[in-house]
Amino acid sequence: EDLFRSGRWTEVVPLARSEWETASEARPDHSAWIANMLGLSLFFAGQVEEARSFVEEQIRLREEMGQLHGAAPLLSTAAFIVAFFGANQLAQQCAIRATQLATASDREELRHRVRNIAVFAQWRTDRSRASAATAHLDNARRAHDANLTVGEANSLWNHALMTTRLEDLTQARITAERA
Known about the structure:
By secondary structure, the chain is mainly alpha-helical. Helix content is 81%, strand content 0%.
């Protein structure tokens, strides 16, 4: 996860693939996490078609096996990836399901990330910059309250992208420097 967060996706892909080879033996929530990391790593390493087909296949298989309960990160990743392909309805469906699952989690960082992607998926559907800006700002406040500085900075950055105001971008930069 540290390699991923530092943007070293090409190094994460082989590690995630190696983990994926034994993931079928892991708990469903752990194998969903590995699938999530592999999908995101593939996407950010530029292997976007493979990332999309992989996450869509994983969701389909988990639905068939009734193993979506620990798959909020994977569903969120799928929403993110398929939105870039213009599959906005599918992105919205994945984001809604991820949000429902994450709400039951005690992991605030997971809930933050899922909310962030849900806002993105909603914006891809309705194109309301004002609504997205408000939702990102609310998510930043929640992250702040939970001491998730990186999440706060990310939400402030997304807020600034929606408002296109320099002062919002400056606040995002200041928060990121604290992270």
